[in-house]
Structure formats: C-alpha cells, structure tokens
C-alpha cells in the first residue's frame, strides 16, 4: 500500500508498505545487477550507508546462477542476505540493449545469451516466472523499450504490444502468487509506460495502463540518448496522467540534478548505475559537483572526499590515499568511492524527503542545483 503523505506542487512525499518493509519516498534504489553492487560492496555495507532498496536484474540472474537455483536456496533475499525490499527489472531493457542478439515477436523475445551464445526465450509469462522464483518485493512488467529514433509507426505498434504484454504479466503474477511453493506471495507488479519522445503516445499509454490499477507505475525508455530537456518535457506531459496515489518510478535515472528535476515533476522512485560505475572510474559525487580523483591536484590532498560526509570513506581516508589506491589499481580504492557515491545518493534522497516534509523543497532544489553547478 502506498501512502501519499504530502505534496509540494507536483512533488510527492510518500511511503510504500511492502512485505519486506517500508520504503520512504522519494527513494534511490542501489543497482546490484547480479545480486551484488559492483565494487565489493556487501549487504552490511548497504545497511551502513542507509540503503532502502536494492535492485537486481532478471535477465542476468536467469543466466547466472539461474533463477531455479535462487529459488531452491530460498529466494533472492536469503541468497544475498538482504532483508529489505528488492526490485527486479523484467529483462525488457535487454530487449533494447541487446538489439543485435534478439528477435521480437508477439509471444515474446528470442535472445542469444551474451555470455555463451545459447538461445533463450523470454515473454511476459517467463519474465514473471523468473521474478517469482527470485521472490523480489517488486517485479517489473515485461516490456519493449523502443529507441526514440524509431519512426512513429513502429513506436505505436511497440507500445500496443507492451500493453498486451502487461495484461499477460498481471494475469500470470496473479496465478503465481496463488501457488503453494511461491517464494513471495505478496510480490507487487509495476507497469511501464513507453512511447519514446512522442507526448501523445506516452499520454495515451499512461491513461490505458492506469486503468489496470497496478501497485505502481514506471516511466521507461528515457535516459537512453535523448536530451535532458526532452526527458523533462516527457515527464511534464506524462506524470499527471499516472495515478498520484501510486508510486511513480523513472527507470535508469540519473544524475543528482536529474533526480531533483524529476522529483519536482512528481517522480518518487529512481535507480541508476552512475554512482557505482563512476566510483569505479575514480569519480566522486559531492555537494559542489563531481570530482575526478585521478587528477594530479589531489596527490597531496589530505582532506576527505567531502568535508562533513559521514560515509565510510570520508570518515577515515584522504583524497590522496584513495587516489593512490586507484592509481595502483587496488580494489579498495574503487570500493571506497562506490560506498561514498551510494551514501551521497541515499542521503540526497533523505534531504529531499526532509525538505518535502518541511514544505521547502522548491527552495532546497534551487540551492542544491546552484551548489552543484557553480564550479562547472
């Protein structure tokens, strides 16, 4: 159940009650594709940096170790020793990202494994079955993510198929949740809005899927090459047509500024690989913008990554030491930066929630963006 606690303009402050605990929104979900955050980050670390939700990938876990294996071991929560909410994506994004390895038909998608080339088939029912085996808190509907460069006719056909697939996902999840050996009988299904950068297609699709009365709704197919301005334009158009009394999830977004802009437009769930991926490449997020610790100017810098930050890296280690670790290709350097970046994102969301609670989000957003961009 989703509680809408407060609004400020279109911005929402909410609370989603799940079988694995309460999610305070707006929330950033930390991306652990193969049931782990890249950068040697454990579930104990995730709790220490105040992670609410961990996100894992249906396609990757289906290939390795296999969702049947995970089910036999008690589900994804037991497998990775995590007792808080988990969201699993549907495998639909791989339909987009593995364009050279797949063939889309009405029944579903024929893939080739990117690991060993073996043939795989995944449709709405298979995606729901895999996610049911994983036992995640929130399962995403199986969809196609059409590239925004596709012509209108293709995007319209694709969105119509995504709607048909969503209805199949809903029916299959209902069936699976009633089976005696289901890992999580309270699994929630989120539908996904698609339509490229075509406002009319997006709005029509949002209205259609809203009628299915699902526990939550995502906006997919953004942050895949279009400009930030195009993304904000689509959010302005679409979010008002999704149910305000349900969570709204912007998939794969994004930078801290993207998040602030999207919260203002009514989004309350986010995920992105940026904090962990950039951390592994020496980039640290701070309230004054992003810094690259490979830069020579940090060689003798004895300060923490950010003064006043309470993360495990900043509480003990200097920029100079972390830079040395990165240059020496020591795993600890990547690990410390990933921890810092995830802590930064999680606590940015905490600050956003507090600002919404206190009715000062508009002023907070303006000041935060000014701080983050003044050195760029």
Automatic annotation (TrEMBL):
The keyword Zinc applies. Residues 10-372 form the tRNA-guanine(15) transglycosylase-like domain. The keyword Metal-binding applies. Its cofactor is Zn(2+). Residues 252-258 are annotated as: RNA binding. Zn(2+) binds at residues 309, 311, 314, 340. Keywords: Glycosyltransferase, Metal-binding, Queuosine biosynthesis, Transferase, tRNA processing, Zinc. It catalyses: 7-aminomethyl-7-carbaguanine + guanosine(34) in tRNA = 7-aminomethyl-7-carbaguanosine(34) in tRNA + guanine. Pathway: tRNA modification; tRNA-queuosine biosynthesis. The active site is at 89 (proton acceptor), 271 (nucleophile). Its EC number is 2.4.2.29. It comes from the Bacteria. InterPro entries: ArchSynthase1/Queuine_TRR, TGT, TGT-like_sf, tRNA_ribo_trans-like. Gene3D superfamilies: Queuine tRNA-ribosyltransferase-like (3.20.20.105). GO terms for molecular function: glycosyltransferase activity. Binds 1 zinc ion per subunit. Substrate binds at residues 89-93, 143, 194, 221. Homodimer. Within each dimer, one monomer is responsible for RNA recognition and catalysis, while the other monomer binds to the replacement base PreQ1. PANTHER family: QUEUINE TRNA-RIBOSYLTRANSFERASE. Belongs to the queuine tRNA-ribosyltransferase family. HAMAP family: Q_tRNA_Tgt (MF_00168). Catalyzes the base-exchange of a guanine (G) residue with the queuine precursor 7-aminomethyl-7-deazaguanine (PreQ1) at position 34 (anticodon wobble position) in tRNAs with GU(N) anticodons (tRNA-Asp, -Asn, -His and -Tyr). Catalysis occurs through a double-displacement mechanism. The nucleophile active site attacks the C1' of nucleotide 34 to detach the guanine base from the RNA, forming a covalent enzyme-RNA intermediate. The proton acceptor active site deprotonates the incoming PreQ1, allowing a nucleophilic attack on the C1' of the ribose to form the product. This is Queuine tRNA-ribosyltransferase. It comes from Aequitasia blattaphilus. The lineage of its organism: Bacteria, Bacillati, Bacillota, Clostridia, Lachnospirales. The gene is tgt.
């Amino acid at each position: 159940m989703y509680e809408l606690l407060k609004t400020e303009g279109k911005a929402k402050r909410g609370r989603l009650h799940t079988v694995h605990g309460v999610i305070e929104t707006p929330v950033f979900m930390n991306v652990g594709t193969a049931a782990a955050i890249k950068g040697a980050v454990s579930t104990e670390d995730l709790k220490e940096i105040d992670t609410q939700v961990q996100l894992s990938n249906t396609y990757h876990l289906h290939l390795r170790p296999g969702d049947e294996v995970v089910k036999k071991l008690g589900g994804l929560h037991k497998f990775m020793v995590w007792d808080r909410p988990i969201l699993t994506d549907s495998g639909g994004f791989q339909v987009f990202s593995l364009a050279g390895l797949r063939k889309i038909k009405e029944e579903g998608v024929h893939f080739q494994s990117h690991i060993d080339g073996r043939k795989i088939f995944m449709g709405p029912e298979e995606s729901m079955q895999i996610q049911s085996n994983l036992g995640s808190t929130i399962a995403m509907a199986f969809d196609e993510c059409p590239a925004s460069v596709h012509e209108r006719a293709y995007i319209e056909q694709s969105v119509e198929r995504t709607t048909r697939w969503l209805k199949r996902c809903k029916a299959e999840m209902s069936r699976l949740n009633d089976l005696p050996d289901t890992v999580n009988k309270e699994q929630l299904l989120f539908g996904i809005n698609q339509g490229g950068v075509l406002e009319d297609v997006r709005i029509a699709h949002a209205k259609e899927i809203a009628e299915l009365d699902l526990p939550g709704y995502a906006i997919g197919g953004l942050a895949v090459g279009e400009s930030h301005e195009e993304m904000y334009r689509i959010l302005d158009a679409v979010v008002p047509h999704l149910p305000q009394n349900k969570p709204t999830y912007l998939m794969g977004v994004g930078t801290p500024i993207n998040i602030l802009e999207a919260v203002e437009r009514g989004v309350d769930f986010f995920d992105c690989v940026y904090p962990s991926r950039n951390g592994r490449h020496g980039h640290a997020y701070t309230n004054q913008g992003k810094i690259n610790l490979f830069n020579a100017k940090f060689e003798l810098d004895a300060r923490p990554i950010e003064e006043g930050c309470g993360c495990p890296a900043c509480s003990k280690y200097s920029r100079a030491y972390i830079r040395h670790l990165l240059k020496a290709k020591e795993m600890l350097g990547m690990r410390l930066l990933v921890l810092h970046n995830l802590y930064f994102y999680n606590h940015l969301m905490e600050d956003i929630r507090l600002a919404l609670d206190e009715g000062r989000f508009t002023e907070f957003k303006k000041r935060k963006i000014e701080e983050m961009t003044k050195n760029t």
